[in-house]
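Researcher: Here's the sequence for the chain we discussed earlier.
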Amino acid sequence: MSDPQSELRAIEKLKNAADCGLPVSFTPEEAEILQRFARTLMGFEALGRVAKLLRAILTYIGWAFAAYLAFKSGLFGWIRSGL
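Model: Thanks. This is the structure I predict for it:
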C-alpha cells in the first residue's frame, strides 16, 4: 500500500498533463496507483447502477402492493355495502 501523498502526487500529475494536453510518463508505482484509483471508481459506478436497478424494482413492487391493497380494500367495502 502506498502512502496518500504519492497517490495525490500521481493524480495531480495526471490532472496537470490532461490540462496541458501533453503526453506524460508515469513511474510503475504511479501507474499502479492510477489503475487502483480507476478500479475503485469503476466499482463505485457499478454499485450505483445496482442501487438504481434495486430502486426501480422496489418502486414497482411498492406500486403493485399499493394497488393490491387498494383493490382489496375496495372489494371488501363493496361486499360490506351489499350485505
